[in-house]
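Hello forum,

I keep getting stuck at the same step: I have a sequence, I want structure tokens, and every attempt I make locally crashes halfway through. Rather than fight my setup again tonight, could one of you with a working pipeline run this one for me? It's a single chain of 358 residues.
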Amino acid sequence: MNNTREVEVAVIGAGQAGLAGAYHLRRSGFEPDRDFVVLDHSPAPGGAWQFRWSSLTYGKVHGMHALPGMELTDADPARPSAEVIGAYFDRYERTFDLRVRRPVDVRAVREGPGGRLLVETSDGVWSARALINATGTWDRPFWPRYPGQETFRGRQVHTARYPGPEEFAGQRVVVVGGGASGTQHLLEIASYAASTTWVTRRPPVFREGPFDEGAGRAAVALVEERVRQGLPPRSVVSVTGLPLNDAIRQGIEDGVLDRQPMFDRITPTGVDWADGRHIDADVILWATGFRAAIDHLAPLRLRSPGGGIRMEGTHAAADPRVHLVGYGPSASTIGANRAGRAAVRDIRRLLEREPAAA
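Reply #2:
Ran it on my machine without issues. Output:
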């Protein structure tokens, strides 16, 4: 405890949600290093964006909303999104003097003395009166399990390690997943691969027309209801459907986006269905999404019987000191901005209501 550093608020994660929270702390009069600290395990600014594949150019990004207080202007749509957004986040951190500490791995958050939270990290222990957890999902790729998976002699890759379409030249590729990543991968890979097969658990839902504010609110409300019940959150994208743009229409017309039902078994040479069908494959690409990276919060016992963390606004229902931004309904870029502001507002009230222990 002698080496423990004290702050009012610890922010874990410096992606969109973490930077939004740090910005609003700064605006509210909190000083970095003295009153709050931002801890990020990534090697550079950019959050999860810095790890995205180079073929995901900024022009292909769906709905990147600017961070509070600074617009992202004059971005080259042909430049990789990892570079564009990494540079933008770097400029943002420096402009608002957020003093993000990286790379710092947060190993556990547990109850400390005097009603404080102890944040145990690779860079020592921090003691905080409140926490903004903004760790996102990128570090927890979801790999479904299917019979025979361990016997497959080809390569299995997750979106989190997608190397770009050139790596699949001349190969037979099965792409699993009906979200935006799965369709993007298919459209890119098709001209390189010997063949592609698209499988999903449920038929994909394509959305016609503009996605207006009313539709956005309805989608967020569905996700919000799950976390209010303590269920694991679904992504906002999972309830909005896929936009039926020109590229998607062309992919459907060309037969690239010809969805097949989920296979029943993986074999050494490919995948099988219960009706006897078999497809040979060299690669299975799992575009199956991510789960919330919140294992470091386990010592606080915040999970409900439903498997998720029951939320009230941005804070855990079981502990008003712990705010989760970028979790559930705030997982979109605009949602993360709003959640950062709301979390700081509630934290100010909490700290004013409960003065620090002497």
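The chain has a mean pLDDT of 91. If your local run keeps crashing, start a new thread with the error log.
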